[in-house]
């Protein structure tokens, strides 16, 4: 019976997904070709985090102005908002395949413009073009995969899009590291993004349109040919009949009336779907994921790691964990279900953000002091604000970095005379056993440093004496805990909140409204992304990194409550059955109890 999930179906979904490699490679070809849109999405998210470190070195105006840094990051997001909004209409008008082809073209143009940009203004123009492509691809790729997937393994296949997003982020960090010493650094990092766009453009030219969209447009014979390639022979006729009935019912119900916002809100199933879908997309961004992905190396530097290369290398760990988490999602999404995975994810995210807030509070409140003797060693380059301070003895590293007329940096030795790596690790392992003694010993490693003018000449002088140069954050004995917090955050976020919102949005809307509603949800995601990306660095400067992460933690708790109340479980249901569920669904607080399917309720009533 349609909509009833038989015992063992979700348990074997993961295995069935991978058995397609030899049973039906055509379905995997569709999924992975469309999923390259996710790779583009992920690559752009990750690559700018590393490229920004070197863009600041090349363009001093970018280094001096936080707003300009945020603009370079967030203008791609602004473009994605427009791309997602237009993409929803384009999906319904011209089809999923055409929308992906246009997205690839825009992304390729943007990559070329960025790689050749002679100034920040043209770089931002390139970022807008890339954003248009990413916005279109972000909502079209999972939609195409969802409509070309058998219901039993739809979640696992759509999760491949999430895997390719995180895989793209991991690839971007590898590319960033590969070009750290190459001439042009950031130009190579940004320009290489055009290659996967070109690859997907070629692959999509060889693939068909979504069969569900073809049915909607009356091109039934074309759709049937594709469905027969996707479904086993014993299932395909039933799927064709179900799809045909669903489309005919929509046409009878809606007539030829045009879709508008009032019609969407007046339709119960669409309204309930939009609340769940848009809400998930907003919370995905407001729990702070893209602050971690866009600014991961910067966050690592705020935790006290000075070197650009070290920051990129440590950020690679978080990107790797993100990719690993998306693989975990493929396994659990059809076994555990969307809703439970979301709840586990948000609970862990809230805990991780609380840890990060505490770590950054300790980092900023226990930074090493500024030494008059160390500063006088660089007498010609002393920070003016420090020289004119009424009480320079009270200055620490954080106060030095906040000096702004002009900007100043902190030059310090990495450790004290006892520089043994083994002793450092040993002391850190004792933190939980002898916290007072170990805290005192570790403080000995944070030697006072010099507060100096921030420019390339002073930076080189500092490095020439085997010292470290800090401009973003201060050396701290708690820096390694910040890395633990970031790792935990990614481990919890990626399998649930990283992929489930896109999966839910690809399957929760009626066919007639799917493109438009998917566009609305994707637009909401990108608007939220823009707000977070444009405000993160400013927030850290205004209220501190600790309070910023604490705000994200509170939002995570609110998001957890939202999922409990508003998000239905769609695991294993054919797309047509989900519409029936939304029609009869009420608020479901006891999420751990299995809710009855619509058809089960009907049978009981009879």
Automatic annotation (TrEMBL):
Annotated Gene Ontology cellular component terms: plasma membrane
Location of this chain's protein in the cell: Membrane
Membrane topology: Multi-pass membrane protein
Superkingdom as given in the UniProt entry: Eukaryota
Transmembrane stretches, start-end: 30-55, 67-86, 98-118, 124-145, 157-179, 185-207, 273-296, 311-334, 341-360, 423-444, 478-504, 547-567
Signal peptide: none
Sequence ranges assigned to domain Major facilitator superfamily (MFS) profile in this UniProt record: 30-571
InterPro entries from the UniProt entry: MFS_dom, MFS_sugar_transport-like, MFS_trans_sf, Myo-inositol_Transporter, Sugar/inositol_transpt, Sugar_transporter_CS
Main location (coarse class): membrane
GO MF annotation list: myo-inositol:proton symporter activity
UniProt similarity note: Belongs to the major facilitator superfamily. Sugar transporter (TC 2.A.1.1) family.
PANTHER family from the UniProt entry: INOSITOL TRANSPORTER 2-RELATED (PTHR48020:SF38), PROTON MYO-INOSITOL COTRANSPORTER (PTHR48020)
Name of the protein: Major facilitator superfamily (MFS) profile domain-containing protein
């Amino acid at each position: 019976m349609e909509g009833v999930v038989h015992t063992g179906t979700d348990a074997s979904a993961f295995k069935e997904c991978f058995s397609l490699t030899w049973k039906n490679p055509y379905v995997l070809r569709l999924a992975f070709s469309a999923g390259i849109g996710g790779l583009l999405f992920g690559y752009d998210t990750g690559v700018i985090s590393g490229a920004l470190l070197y863009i600041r070195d090349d363009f001093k105006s970018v280094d001096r102005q936080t707003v300009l840094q945020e603009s370079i990051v967030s203008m791609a997001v602004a473009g994605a908002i427009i791309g997602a909004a237009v993409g929803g209409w384009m999906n319904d008008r011209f089809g999923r395949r055409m929308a992906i082809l246009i997205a690839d073209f825009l992304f390729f143009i943007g990559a070329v413009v960025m790689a050749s940009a002679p100034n920040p203004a043209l770089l931002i123009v390139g970022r807008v073009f890339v954003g248009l492509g990413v916005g279109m691809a972000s909502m079209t790729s999972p939609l195409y995969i969802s409509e070309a997937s058998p219901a039993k393994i739809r979640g696992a296949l759509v999760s491949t899009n999430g895997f390719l997003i995180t895989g793209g982020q991991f690839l971007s960090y590898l590319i960033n590291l590969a070009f750290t010493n190459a001439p042009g650094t950031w130009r190579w990092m940004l320009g290489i993004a055009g290659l996967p766009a070109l690859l997907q453009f070629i692959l999509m030219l060889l693939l068909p349109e979504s069969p569900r969209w073809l049915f909607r447009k009356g091109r039934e014979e074309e759709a049937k040919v594709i469905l027969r390639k996707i479904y086993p022979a014993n299932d395909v006729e039933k799927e064709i009949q179900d799809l045909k009935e669903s489309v005919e019912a929509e046409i009878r119900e809606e007539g030829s009336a045009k879709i508008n916002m009032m019609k969407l809100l007046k339709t119960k199933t669409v309204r309930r779907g939009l609340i769940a879908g848009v809400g998930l997309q907003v919370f995905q961004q407001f729990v702070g994921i893209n602050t971690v992905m866009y600014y991961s190396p910067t966050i690592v530097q705020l935790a006290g790691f000075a070197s650009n290369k070290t920051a990129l290398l440590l950020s690679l760990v978080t990107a790797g964990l993100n990719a690993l988490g998306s693989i975990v999602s493929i396994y659990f999404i059809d076994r555990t279900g969307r809703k439970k995975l979301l709840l586990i994810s948000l609970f862990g995210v809230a805990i991780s953000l609380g840890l990060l807030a505490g770590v950054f509070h300790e980092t900023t409140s226990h930074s090493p002091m500024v030494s008059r003797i160390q500063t006088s060693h660089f007498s010609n380059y002393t920070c003016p604000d420090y020289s004119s301070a009424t009480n320079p003895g009270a200055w620490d590293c954080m106060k030095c970095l906040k000096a702004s007329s002009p900007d100043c940096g902190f030059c310090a030795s990495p450790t004290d005379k006892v520089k043994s790596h083994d002793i450092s690790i040993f002391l850190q392992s004792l933190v939980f056993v002898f916290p007072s003694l170990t805290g005192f010993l570790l403080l000995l490693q944070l030697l006072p440093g010099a507060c100096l003018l921030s420019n390339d000449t002073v930076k080189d002088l500092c490095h020439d004496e085997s010292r470290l140069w800090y401009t973003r954050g201060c050396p701290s004995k708690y820096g390694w805990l910040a890395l633990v917090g970031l790792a935990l955050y990614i481990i919890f976020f990626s399998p649930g909140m990283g992929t489930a919102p896109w999966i839910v949005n690809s399957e929760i809307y009626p066919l007639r409204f799917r493109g438009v509603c998917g566009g609305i949800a994707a637009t909401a995601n990108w608007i939220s992304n823009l707000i977070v990306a444009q405000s993160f660095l400013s927030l850290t400067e205004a209220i501190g990194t600790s309070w910023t992460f604490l705000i994200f933690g509170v939002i995570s708790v609110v998001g957890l409550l939202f999922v409990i109340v508003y998000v239905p479980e769609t695991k294993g249901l054919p797309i047509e059955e989900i519409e029936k569920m939304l029609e009869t669904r009420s608020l479901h607080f006891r999420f751990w109890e299995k809710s009855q399917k619509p058809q089960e309720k009907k049978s009981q009533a009879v």
